[in-house]
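This protein record is not my work; I was only asked to verify it. Where you disagree with what is written, explain briefly why. This is what I was given:
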Amino acid sequence: MQADGESGVPSVLMPRFRCAALCGAAKCSVPARRPRRAHGKIRPVRRTAWPALAALLCLLACVGARAQTRWYAVEMGGQHIGHLVEERVATEGHVRTRIGLSLLVKRDGTPLRIEASERHEEREDGTPLGFASRLEAGGTRTEVEARVEHGMIEARIVQGDRVSERRLPWPEGALLAEGQRRLLASLPGSGARERRARAFDAAALTAVPLKLVLRQDPPPERPELVRIEQELGEPGAGQHTEVWLEPERGEVVQMQTTLFGLPLRMRSCSEACATAPPVAAEVLLTSLVPSPRALSVRERRRTLWYRVAADGAALAPLSRIPGQRIVRDAEGEVVLAIDPHGQDAPAPSPADTLPSRWLQSDDPEVRALAIRAAAGSTRPERILPRLVRAVREHIRHRSLNVGYASAAEVVRQREGDCTEHAVLLAALARALGIPARVVFGLAYAPAYAGREQVFVPHAWVMAWVEGRWVGLDAALAGFDAAHIGLAMGDGEPFDFYGGLDLMGRLRILDITAHATEDR
């Protein structure tokens, strides 16, 4: 990337780019008609990595006030997988920031290159003026270009061959790159131990809660550095990142987080060091979760009780999925109960039937497919099985080659894995007025990639039927209690922030088919 007078990295960008990468990398690919051989797909960033990468980029906002370009090598599990470059230029009361990220990962041996970039323009005090975002992964492309005037965002969005425009209010107090940089740089020496704000996610067009905490434990070899911990997302369920800052010069030396259970580190170095040829890291297989035993088809149709641990990650996101609840057994250990027959609360909101950027239920081809599949029926309990069958038949080529396609892209390309099955199914349901959400998590596979009895990254749908949320899985033979949801939303990759910290860290210690809670 050539320096063109734009530089700087917002504190929230790293996690978002991680999310994008996750979505592309963690997506799963599961044949719909052969449940005995499940295929998991990692999308980091394809479907799950976007939030994680965004959190690390968020911390890069703290750079010097002069025009400069800084390079960072990106390492996962000790392997050099790509680079990040940030440029910041301050002129005549304006600050322009530009960040670029390039990563190379593998999903069960299939390579995936992820290219992401952002541009922010602000006044010197952090007042937003405009922004742009671009993400390319596995043949899919999403772009956002926007200006901010009089408290309103005027955005142009490109997804594949679909172009749309949105006008929405600027979230009060939300910060772009320069605002985040100023917040981060102000923490050391301020006498405060903590800062809270909202970081604006340019790709998602939303504000995300941001918490910064100053720690007093510099490395012995670099006593001049300070360590700042960042949580991006809802309190107790966000993505955690730590940054090492040189406060005198306002420079970020290193950032580190966990992705798919592997340490992900960004360290400042020369351009030659950062842009050295990358070595693709395998991200899908590292996120497989061993099952303590085999699960029969019969018991998976009943409520299952999972004794779980998460190596320090918050388990709260697990209880936010309909049909899942956290309890304690007689010994006080954490148990996750999953009822495959659904749950009646919380009820859907009006937004659960509306089009979204990834669930374009108003797209003519999506609506036409939904109407054909419904075959004249108006009863959701009859329509939904027909929609599941329609998705299985429509997606002719199941592969890991797709980055993270939207429903409109899937209906035209007819290719993808579990995430493509999920977004298309949810969009078809919404097109017919049935509330639906996309769930990201883990699904049981008797065998996958040479391993037996494992839980594989997966995506499915929750739909509101006869007063209850019920699970639907168009990529596997069906939904059951061996689906562990980590996060849920309307198809936006950034909805998965809450589940990122659990990916690669969740452990299943025991599974029973009878109640083990402490009543």
